[in-house]
Amino acid sequence: MNLTAVKEESEVMERHVEDSLAIIDPIRNSYLSRCGSCFEDLSVVDVGSGAGLPGLVLAIACPGWKVTLLESMNKRCVFLENAVELIGLQNVRIVRDRAENLGQNLDFREGFDIAVARAVAEMRVLAEYCLPLVRVGGLFVAAKGHDPQEEVAKAGRAIHLMGASLLQTCFVESHSKYGQRTAIICLKDSPTPRKYPRAPGTPSKMPL
């Protein structure tokens, strides 16, 4: 379905599947130290799931998690629905919508223990997409490249406005070009103001 540029099975496993699995340990360590005593029964939203990376991989690896795959493009949702049915996963739901809409929907707003995102947008945009969906005391985890320091620094204001703080930056091993990636982990300290997220398209056009 031409969802990624990578075509070879071995390369998919290394660059996408293993890369997605690599963020589990940083999430576990941060969650157990700051958010709660149980790591087996979490509600997780993958914002901009695309081909199910990392959300679909996390749902398989952590069967106790309830994983919501949020994706706005119908083509990708059709793929995700077929993949979930083929694998037989019972812990996944697929929502076709934009993050800006879901963040203002009271059925979803601040309803997740963890929000994750990989290869979706820069950090200051991702913060507005993801943090309104995270409960107070939960985590936002962005899978980023080998050198995200400048991007993270620019996102400081946006993270703060969403009611969160930067918890840590974890290096994770990867088969990417540089041999490592980073997991940027933010802790939700207080409720996100009701005006966020802004209208669809605004966060990317006018980053905070």
UniProtKB/TrEMBL annotation:
Cross-referenced SUPFAM superfamilies: S-adenosyl-L-methionine-dependent methyltransferases (SSF53335)
Segments crossing the lipid bilayer: none
Cell inner membrane among keywords: no
Keywords carried by this UniProt record: Cytoplasm, Methyltransferase, rRNA processing, S-adenosyl-L-methionine, Transferase
GO MF assignments: rRNA (guanine-N7-)-methyltransferase activity
PANTHER family given in the database record: S-ADENOSYL-L-METHIONINE-DEPENDENT METHYLTRANSFERASES SUPERFAMILY PROTEIN (PTHR31760:SF0)
Protein's UniProt name: Ribosomal RNA small subunit methyltransferase G
Species of provenance: Erythranthe guttata (Yellow monkey flower)
Lineage per the UniProt record: Eukaryota, Viridiplantae, Streptophyta, Embryophyta, Tracheophyta
